[in-house]
Design brief:
The chain is α/β, with parallel strands linked by helices. Helix content is 26%, strand content 22%.
């Protein structure tokens, strides 16, 4: 393990670190390069979450250069790592609510944004889910609602409770995915991963220990948080996934069991992640992998 220190405005490595791409198969001679996106705190002056993001925006290029990775500079195209999810075989998933939001690339059409994704990520097909997780303040990043388990197979955050605001959002994405294929023409296998049965809400005690910077979007006690078990991280042989404890312990056990059933070749490692969630993200949001 190597520790790396750098100045940033916030903690979300997924969104401010480089997105790494690989040319060639891992079993062959290959090259790793870094993509440096423009970062504007999830919406800039339109609906960004804090007023100053210069250090975050500079981090990706700085990290790549320190470790000697060639850099593709994608600026001024605004993107965060949590807003894309790839199967590694040419298919990339995004949400319309995020990538088409007014605070990111308002001068680009949907078709032009898709072309940028194909250009920098080597994607052959982009799947545009309509929405993400209710109350996700990133304009609903895809990494909180839907993820590839492997090529041709996805997990979708779900609820059977039609009274829950998430139901309509997930149902719309399910209907879309059921009609789509991936870049290789395969129909997708879709696994429904239930969200916590009890909405996870921030408490006044948690708020008492939270410091808001000038211009930062403040939270209120009782506010529902964007809790989802889909915000997990794949390591080489494991799945590190969030759990929330308390009154959702049964929901946690169910989610872990389902993920283990769908990933028999990996260890599923649950990590209590409520404190990360209170900050606005989760396990996938605070990590960023570098391919070998």
């Amino acid at each position: 393990m190597e520790l790396f220190s750098a100045k940033t405005d916030d903690a979300w490595a997924r969104d401010v670190a480089p997105t790494f791409v690989r040319k060639g198969n891992v079993s062959e001679e290959h090259e790793i390069r870094a993509v440096n996106w423009e970062f504007n705190a999830w919406g800039g002056e339109v609906d960004g979450l804090y007023a100053s993001w210069e250090k975050d925006n500079a981090f990706a290029k700085y990290f790549a250069e320190i470790y000697g990775y060639p850099v593709y500079d994608a600026a001024p195209f605004v993107l965060e790592g949590g807003s894309i999810h790839s199967d590694g075989e040419g298919t990339v998933m995004v949400t319309e609510s995020c990538l088409l939001s007014a605070g990111r690339n308002p001068k680009l059409s949907k078709e032009e944004i898709e072309q940028r994704l194909k250009q920098y990520l080597g994607a052959k097909k982009v799947l545009w889910l309509p929405r993400g997780i209710y109350q996700d303040e990133t304009n609903e990043h895809v990494d909180n609602v839907c993820a590839f388990l492997r090529p041709g197979e996805v997990v979708l955050a779900w609820t059977d409770n039609r009274e829950d605001p998430q139901y309509a959002l997930s149902a719309e994405s399910l209907a879309y995915l059921e009609q789509e294929t991936d870049a290789k023409g395969r129909k997708l296998v879709i696994h429904k991963l239930p969200i916590p049965d009890i909405p996870v809400c921030i408490t006044s005690e948690e708020l008492a220990g939270y410091t808001f910077e000038a211009g930062e979007d403040e939270r209120e006690a009782g506010e529902r948080l964007a809790a989802s078990y889909v915000n997990f991280y794949f390591s080489n042989d494991a799945v590190v996934m969030p759990v929330f404890g308390g009154e959702n312990e049964e929901s946690d056990r169910r989610a872990v069991a389902l993920m283990q059933e769908w990933n028999k070749d990996r260890r599923v490692i649950p990590v209590y992640a409520r404190d990360i969630l209170v900050g606005g993200g989760n396990i996938h949001c605070i990590t960023q992998q570098i391919p070998l």
